[in-house]
Amino acid sequence: MGHGAGLKKVKDDGREELRWGIERRLEFIDFRLFWEGRINRSDLTDQFGISTPQASADLARYQELAPANLTYDPSLRCYLATSRFRSVFDVEDSSRYLAQLRSIANGTIRSEEAWLAEPPHFRVVPAPGRGVDTRTLKAVLGAIREGRALQVRYQSMSKPEPQWRWMTPHALGFDGFRWHARAFCHKDETFKDFVFARILDIGESKPHTIDPASDRAWSESVTVMIAPHPGLSEGQRRAIGLDYGMHEGQCAIEVPKAFLYYFLKRLGLDGDPSRKRPQDQHIVLVNRKEVREALSGAQPGE
After folding, report:
1. Which residues does residue 153 pair with via DSSP β-bridges, in sequence order?
2. How are beta strands 179-185 and 190-195 bridged, if at all?
3. pTM check: above 0.85
4. What are all long-range contacts of 12-16, with beta carbons under 8 Å and residues at least 24 apart?
5. How far apart are CA 199 and CA 134, in angstroms?
6. Looking at residue 145, what is its pLDDT?
């Protein structure tokens, strides 16, 4: 394959815009060079199932894009990142690397599907499996796509037994542990979160288009201001500031009102910080009154 194949146009930054498959492989080269310092043709053939000549062409194309980024070592028979390496595809974000480790740990991808040739030994704190029934998810997605209401048999935490009820979903939400269907509840005439695992059965469906913009808790956000616990030492507060990326001792986080309950609970901000030791509760709410007012107007679910 010639080096000119797959070109579309010249991007504003001067980089040639390539077909998605080619650009994906070049991004892989960029990733391996930055995070592991080396790459060879077999890395590409194993990862993407391409031929050796195609892998050679991809490496040559990458070298045209960033000639200062790599050099070939004949003794190792691979390309090495140079000290002048500058990422072409913005792979220098540590969250991208760590996201791959996490995906391997939770089974989202297999280790051979990741872009990591030599990942470090790692473990992730296990969490109880909270799977989503395929039939239920498909029904909810269909209702969102077609603008229909669904009859579901739902186990609410406010009722001792499951009940049949109608809901009109318009989005999905993840609270860090569980997936929800964000929906208009016909029984209570308000928008709520329906935990997928608590949807025990699917019944009928009917047309019922809603305007997602009317779900104000979903579309509106509140700024949550956090700071290190004042009971910590100066050095500890400085460390917590670095841990949360704080600026001048505070951090502002935009949180959708529909997620505010889950956000506060996950960070331990849903109670009185004075009841916890600073060493156990590292951060506190700065704008508690504003956050509490926003929380009172949101319906997280049942």
Report:
1. 164, 201
2. antiparallel
3. no
4. 15/65, 15/88, 16/65
5. 12
6. 95
